[in-house]
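Hmm, what's this shape?
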Amino acid sequence: MTLRLHNKLFISTRPKDSSGELTDLLSREGATVIEFPLIEIKAAQISEKEKRYFTQPKQFHWIIFTSPNGVRYFFGILKEYTGSHSLPDEIQFAVIGEKTESILKEFGYRASFVNPGSTAEDFSKPYLNHIKAGGTKPNILLPLGNLARTTIQDQLEGAANCTRINVYNTEIPINPDRRIIQQIEEDRYDMLIFTSPSGIQNFLKAYPTSRKQNIRMVCIGPVTHNEAINNGFHPLVTAQKSSAKGIVDSILNYYISKT
């Protein structure tokens, strides 16, 4: 078996212990992966008003989950306040992406609307058409992270009553590993892997370089890619599909094109 990434070293900036699938796929191709978490996910503080979204969920017709973290932290908070993961049967779920759908299933629920894309832009128009076909103006709960954009709320304005709640916060870890920063400075790596705009922003805080054009990076999709470009970087690879497999496939295609 040919190991197509033999002797390649990748640095993953994903949150701690979130690189398992990515590391496994890269390792199968002979690569080495170092974890350099530049994102830390923490549960958000919920206000008294927001508690009612969990204790009185019948006010909502839909819950939209845009990420696996949104699912996990929402149900964690739900159990904290109600003692279970149970929700009224009439509530429907919409999700972005297959990974988010699979996490929702772990809590015993199935999505009524699954968008195969990976961004809020991919999701909004098809979902808008879906709810318009229902002929009503639904109440929708959006459990998000504190850095999530307002794309979905903006696109659904007028067609639905959207309530946003931040169920988790994305922060920069304290004291990023200086050994890995030195490794980057000494150019002892092949690519840095970024899977969110906040990863790009936190990298600049941990490693404020003026040689941005020299940083070799792969981005998970167009949103992260655009954040990199806007900050002066020049990504070598942007995954065509926003998933661990999509990242690895795009990396492989990049090296194949160089041979």
Summary: The longest helix spans residues 68-82. The mean pLDDT is 93. The two ends are 18 Å apart (CA to CA).
